[in-house]
Design goal:
The complex is a heterotrimer of chains A (about 80), B (about 575) and C (about 190).
Chain A (H helix, E strand, L loop, with lengths): L1 H11 L15 H55 L1
Chain B lengths: L9 H4 L10 H6 L4 H31 L4 E2 L3 E2 L2 H37 L7 H20 L22 H4 L4 H29 L12 H32 L13 H35 L6 H15 L14 H29 L8 H24 L1 H7 L3 H31 L5 H27 L18 H34 L56
Antiparallel strand pairs in B: 1-2
Helix pairs in contact in B: 3-4, 3-5, 3-16, 4-7, 4-8, 4-9, 4-14, 5-7, 7-8, 8-9, 8-10, 9-10, 9-12, 9-14, 10-11, 11-12, 12-14, 12-15, 14-15, 15-16
Chain C lengths: L14 H30 L13 H27 L6 H27 L8 H33 L4 H26 L1
Helix pairs in contact in C: 1-4, 1-5, 2-3, 2-5, 3-4, 4-5
Classes of the chains: A mainly alpha (about 80), B mainly alpha (about 575), C mainly alpha (about 190).
């Protein structure tokens, strides 16, 4: 959904806008390079960090479940020895 | 490299558990104790804040009373003015907000709130501070070389920054860049430490959703910093080569592209705003829950919103370049994303207000700072929406409207956030209570003048007052009497605000020496740092704590006390 | 999966490896920044490569890249042996990885000398600036990673190589090996 809005926004804008400073002396190739590297720099960290975090969270949540069951066992044992 | 990654061998892990009384040098200067390093960062940051504040005083005096001899500084020449403005910005962001909010509070709070005896890489931590201190010295030294300090604005746009013919600071600009690069190395090492400690070394039983919000925010801020800083380091190397080795990365006459620097700079520059914002938001969250005696409204919502903010913060940076000749199609996309990022931040504001709603609020000094953070940052955020829209930004760009906008974001972050955290954790840090009456005098004496400095500047900005002008009397339409009156109002408010900081330093020193002794948990808070002694000894706890619940269990029905520390089994 | 780390603390992976992983993400972005800058300058140039500049040694560097990849391959073998606990059969692939990696760095250095002689310098054109910047930064990383691997070799011989240290050293080397083909394609081709 968000992607559709963003892409639509990108397409709606026209290069021949009334803004005098928007189109400098840049060539079309140079403008494309800026757009391309902007996308590259924006999405590379999101993908790399997102991948690492997804892996990390999955492993941590699995381990927390394991620790929880183990600790529940410990607590039961503790209660029994006190009682 | 070889030294910077310590091994996991037990010899390294145990070297901060010596029992003999340490000497002065090993205790205060070469300590690997996270609390001492936090204090070193804190005091260095405060010293830099005083220097940065003095710079603001000097150039504001020049703007209000052009050409006068500023008491304590002298005549402000155009070159002085440029150097002062540039270094005021750089110091306040890189040498005040970053070291105090991330490094000082991160170092102090992460091990204490996660129940560790220290950071996982204590020696790396010490190295981080030493590099940071070196960077501060290098920065200040740039004022004393031939040509004076760098004057090309803290954003250092080429070609102004790249060529000595333009900047007139052949050495100052390179020293400035070197200082910034060193400072980044310091925070790179620090960030690795923060993330690893918080994610890899928490107390037994502390699950991901039991970590206090401020720790999450510092960790997410560190991730943002580490991921965004690379392109800027690449740009800084290229700029340094342009300055000193004669390359032409940013020189259009020889095949380079000056907009390329803005591209690399703002890729870092915008996430950087969130790098310093998140810790301040986290500190506010801790304070608000403690003094409203209520559970944080929607812990998981806050956490997920923070992550969303982090993700979005990488998609907004080109909004700084709307008038740099970027493709208008790109400008549209970045307008949309910029407006989008106000949604999670607004949500955070509502969460905080919802936390306050129905709480039994105690208006202590830290709480006043926390509440004022919400109110003042809101103004900064709302004015940002005007600037985020590319159509409006073309007219507002480089006016005082922009300046007032980002001071309304950075002042709450760097100054209000710091005072909130410092007054809140002062009992833990130094073992004594701060004087509440003096604290409140200082609070009102800071907040009221602050608004009188920057609300007038919004008005001036809408009147068309451009930034980076040394003396407005050269521009008849910018030096009308009403405009000059507003400048005088802003400058006199600044003088009042700076004057009230004396109250803070007096309170700080007197409370440090003879304040009332603080108990372990003076605010009746839940998080782990309040279960250690005040101040915590080396190694923090005799026996490291175990965690049984989340950090915000306040006013739980059916309990005698209205708080429920994380380390109590029941 | 090991349930609890040191002192009964939850830990995903050895601290040294975790810290290095974070560092590598930051370094990845450093290279991403330089690659972006390279593309922007290249796109704005009227002709590429700039006129009057020597041709980059594409073939020789391709062979050298294979040497680097082979070094990475031997390190994988060392990694497997290490995690089998078979420290004796780990020594040979580790030394081979180290030797091939050193060969790569030295060969790159000799190429630099040759190119400087042919008139490609840091200031001769934007191609030269970027060539020395990108390849030089990669070379610094390679040298740092090789020093870490050499320390790991010494520690292996003395019998106290920890998983954290070895993990950090090999992670950095894998990063150096993995990012090189991308840089080769961007800068040379």
């Amino acid at each position: 959904m968000l992607a559709i809005v963003v892409v639509a926004g990108a397409l709606l804008a026209d290069a021949a806008s009334a803004c005098t400073v928007c189109l400098g002396a840049q060539t079309e190739a140079s403008r494309k390079a800026f757009v391309g590297t902007t996308a590259f720099l924006t999405f590379l960290p999101l993908m790399v960090v997102g991948g690492i975090i997804a892996l990390f969270v999955r492993r941590t949540l699995a381990q927390e479940a394991l620790d929880e069951s183990r600790r529940a066992g410990d607590l039961d044992a503790g209660v029994e020895s006190q009682g | 490299m070889a030294e910077s990654i310590p091994s996991d061998s037990p010899a390294v892990a145990d070297d901060h558990h010596g029992h003999e009384e340490p000497s002065f040098w090993s205790k205060y200067v070469f300590s690997t104790d996270h609390k001492m390093i936090a204090m070193q960062y804190m005091f260095t940051g405060m010293a830099m804040a005083v220097i940065g504040g003095f710079m603001a005083y000097a150039f504001r005096m020049q703007l209000a009373f052009p050409g006068i001899e500023v008491p304590g500084f002298g005549i402000v020449t155009p070159a002085n003015y440029n150097a002062l403005v540039t270094n005021h910005g750089a110091i306040m962001i890189f040498w005040v907000a970053m070291p105090v909010l991330i490094a000082a509070f991160g170092n102090y709070l992460i091990p204490l709130m996660c129940g560790c005896d220290d950071m996982v890489f204590p020696k790396l931590n010490r190295l981080s501070y030493q590099i940071f201190l070196l960077s501060a010295v290098v920065l200040l030294s740039s004022f004393f070389v031939e040509g004076g300090g760098f004057g090309g604005a803290w954003t250092a746009y080429p070609p102004l920054s790249a060529k000595a013919e333009y900047s007139l600071t052949p050495l100052g600009s390179s020293i400035w860049l070197g200082a910034v690069a060193l400072e980044f190395v310091a925070f790179l090492l620090g960030g690795i430490n923060f993330i690893t400690t918080a994610m890899n070394s928490r107390a037994p039983g502390m699950k991901l959703y039991d970590i206090p919000i401020v720790i999450w925010m510092i960790v997410i801020a560190s991730i943002l910093f580490l991921v965004s800083v690379g392109p800027l380091i690449a740009g800084a190397i290229m700029l340094l080569f342009d300055q000193q080795l004669g390359t032409a990365f940013f020189d259009p006459a020889r095949g380079g592209d000056p907009v390329l620097w803005q591209h690399l700079f703002w890729f870092f520059g915008h996430p950087e705003v969130y790098v310093v914002l998140l810790p301040a938001l986290g500190i506010t969250a801790e304070i608000i829950t403690v003094f409203a005696r209520k559970k944080l409204f929607g812990y998981k919502t806050v956490l997920h919103t923070t992550i969303a903010t982090g993700v979005l913060s990488f998609t907004v940076w080109a909004h700084h370049q709307f008038i740099s000749g970027v493709d208008p199609r790109m400008a549209h996309v970045f307008t949309l994303t910029t407006l989008l990022i106000s949604v999670p931040i607004a949500e955070m504001m509502f969460v905080y207000i919802a936390t306050l709603y129905g709480g039994s609020i105690r208006l202590t000094t830290p709480m006043l700072w926390g509440l004022s953070f919400i109110a003042e940052f809101l103004i900064g955020g709302v004015t940002g929406i005007f600037l985020g829209a590319s159509g409006a930004d073309i007219y507002f760009h480089d006016t005082y409207f922009v300046l007032a906008h980002f001071h309304y974001t950075f002042f709450p972050i760097a100054i209000i956030g710091t005072f909130a955290g410092l007054t809140f954790w002062f009992p833990k840090m130094f073992g004594r209570m701060m004087n509440d009456r003096l604290g409140k005098i200082h609070f009102w004496g800071t907040i009221i003048p602050f608004n009188f400095i920057f609300i007038p500047l919004f008005v001036l900005g809408m009147g068309g007052q451009h930034r980076r002008i040394f003396d407005y009397s050269y521009f008849p339409e910018l030096s009308m009497p009403w405009m000059q009156d507003i400048r005088v109002l802003a400058t006199s408010s600044l003088l009042i605000m700076l004057g009230f900081q004396v109250v803070f330093f007096y309170n700080f020193i007197v409370s440090l020496r003879s304040g009332e002794k603080a108990s372990k948990n003076p605010w009746k808070s839940n998080t782990l740092e309040w279960t250690a002694d005040s101040p915590p000894p080396h190694g923090n706890w005799k026996e490291l704590p175990t965690v049984y619940r989340g950090p915000y269990e306040y006013s739980v029905p059916g309990r005698d006390e209205d708080y429920w520390p994380q380390d109590q089994p029941n | 999966m090991e349930p609890l780390g040191e002192n009964g603390r939850s830990s995903m992976m050895p601290n040294g490896l975790f810290g290095m992983a974070i560092f590598i993400v930051a370094e990845l972005m450093l290279f991403a920044g330089m690659i972006s800058a390279f593309f922007i300058v290249k796109a704005a140039a009227p002709s590429w490569p700039p006129p009057g500049q020597p041709r980059l040694p594409i073939e020789a560097t391709a062979l050298n890249s294979l040497v680097l990849l082979a070094s990475g391959f031997f390190l994988i073998q060392a990694h497997r042996a290490f995690h089998r606990g078979d420290r004796d059969s780990m020594r040979r692939p580790l030394l081979l990885a180290l030797a091939l990696g050193s060969f790569f760095v030295i060969f790159q250095g000799s190429e630099w000398v040759a190119l400087l002689g042919q008139g490609l310098t840091l200031t001769s054109s934007s191609l030269g600036s970027f060539f020395y910047l990108v390849v030089g930064v990669h070379g610094i990383h390679a040298a740092a990673a090789l020093i870490l691997l050499a320390i790991a070799t010494v520690r292996l011989r003395r019998g106290y190589l920890s998983p954290g240290f070895f993990g950090a050293a090999e992670a950095l080397w894998f990063f150096v090996v993995g990012v090189w083909p991308v840089l080769y394609m961007v800068v040379y081709l």
